[in-house]
Amino acid sequence: MESGTVTEWMTKNKISDENINFIETVLTFTSSVKIIPDKQDVINENLKTLFPSKKVIIKPDLTFQEFTQILKDSDLEVDPVELLNKYRSQGVCVNLCDELLNDGKTNNTF
After folding, report:
1. What are the helix and strand counts (H, E) for the chain?
2. Which of 20, 47, 97, 98 is 20 to 30 Å from 91 at the Cα level?
3. 3-state SS string over 54-93?
């Protein structure tokens, strides 16, 4: 894997700052709702406020396929496996990234 941050990698792959923020927010909000599921409604309201043009609902049992669909629905052309591996390697949302990657392998999504 090449050096540099995941943000630098996404910028190099022509992902806009807004979409980088969106991806990071989806990952951190999903990680949060896994820990505090009773705040799911508040977290989703905040997500809608931050990104009104995006159609996504955060839930604690997000699957790899659903994460991939979020990227696709947001017109983000990025390899979800590489993206999750880059976040995981930098220590960002490691547990969530591991869960999503394992789900993708288990369900033969990649």
Report:
1. 6, 0
2. 47
3. CCCCCCCCCCHHHHHHHHHHCCCCCCHHHHHHHHHHCCCC
Alpha carbon separation from 76 to 2, 34, 39, 85 (Å, rounded): 21, 24, 27, 17
- Alpha carbons 43 and 69: distance in angstroms, whole number: 19
Of the candidates 9, 3, 106, 73, the one whose C-alpha atom is nearest the C-alpha of residue 26 is: 73
- Please tell me the predicted confidence (pLDDT) of residue 55: 86
- Is pLDDT of 103 > 50? yes
Count the Cβ atoms, other than its own, within 10 Å of residue 101.
Answer: 19
Q: Using an 8 Å Cβ cutoff, are 59 and 100 in contact?
A: no
pLDDT of 110 strictly over 80: no
In angstroms, rounded to a whole number, what is the distance separating the alpha carbons of residues 75 and 4?
24
